[in-house]
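To illustrate the input format used throughout this study, we show a single complete record. The first block contains the structure-token representation of the backbone; no residue identities are included at this stage. The design step must infer an amino acid for every position from geometry alone.
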């Protein structure tokens, strides 16, 4: 088979370019499976919102998709087994506000443009907090710039982890006291549900592929091998991000939950139910 035909036959993966999916991507990036997987898949890294855009536009066949995108695109098929979620403290999804300004008095929220699902969760939380009218303004993840533009900010992924690392230094630098709300904590406190951020989904080409079961197996095996190699991932990412290795270890082993178990499936269903009831998302009949 020629290089061109090999490339044309491979399934295109839209992968999130953050720390949190690292265990899910293990086999795609590390031997002994990476060489064989490279013959079947081609991968590009991007933000969560871009993953959704690529899959919806047919520019990717498989993607880690923020679950909010599913409501408007029910043709996308969820792969069983894997998720990016949290059953408690998540750390990398934060709402930041000024300490002197209660949530009910927030007049605007700068929303990380990398996010779709977290903004949907935030809109629901603001409804429940009695401030449903606060507008959400899309901005790049720069906390200082966001707070110069709006009363509060939503930051996700690696920028959120870095903002927490900079918390004390920022207070010393600016003298401005901020409150950092962990979105998964807030959601669980109000609903009792886990916070489910993203799942593997595929478009029509992959869904119709005779290799569907193989795709599911590839993703689950990669997750299992990634979780078995957390120490190696900690070493890799500690060299990439100015975050203590111990924090990265806790994040990958305790903050993020990677198995799409029944509690997480129920969490997704609850997410869509609340979003529909509040008229934030269209009704979505989730199927696995």
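Output of the design step:
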């Amino acid at each position: 088979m020629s290089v061109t035909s090999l490339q044309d036959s491979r399934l295109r993966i839209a992968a999130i370019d953050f720390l949190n999916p690292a265990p899910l991507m293990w086999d795609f990036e590390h031997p002994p499976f990476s060489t064989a997987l490279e013959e079947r898949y081609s991968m590009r890294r991007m933000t969560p919102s871009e993953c959704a855009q690529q899959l919806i536009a047919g520019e990717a066949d498989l993607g880690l998709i923020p679950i909010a995108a599913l409501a408007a695109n029910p043709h996308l098929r969820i792969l069983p087994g894997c998720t990016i979620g949290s059953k408690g403290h998540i750390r990398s999804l934060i709402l930041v506000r000024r300490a002197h300004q209660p949530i009910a008095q927030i007049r605007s929220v700068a929303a990380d443009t990398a996010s779709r699902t977290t903004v949907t969760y935030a809109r629901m939380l603001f409804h429940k907090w009695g401030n449903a009218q606060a507008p959400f303004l899309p901005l790049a993840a720069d906390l200082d710039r966001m707070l110069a533009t709006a009363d509060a900010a939503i930051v996700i992924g690696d920028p959120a982890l870095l903002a927490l690392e900079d918390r004390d230094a920022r207070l010393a630098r600016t003298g401005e006291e901020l409150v950092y709300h962990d979105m998964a904590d807030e959601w669980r406190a109000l609903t009792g549900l886990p916070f489910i951020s993203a799942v593997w989904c595929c478009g029509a080409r992959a869904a119709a592929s005779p290799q569907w079961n193989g795709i599911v197996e590839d993703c689950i095996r990669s997750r299992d091998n990634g979780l078995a190699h957390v120490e190696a991932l900690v070493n890799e990412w500690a060299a990439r991000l100015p975050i203590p290795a111990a924090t990265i270890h806790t994040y990958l082993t305790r903050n993020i939950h990677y198995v799409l178990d029944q509690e997480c499936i129920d969490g997704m269903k609850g997410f869509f139910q609340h979003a529909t009831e509040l008229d934030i998302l269209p009704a979505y009949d989730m199927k696995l």
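Structural context for interpreting the output: The radius of gyration is 19 Å. Residues 13 and 43 are 5 Å apart (CA to CA).
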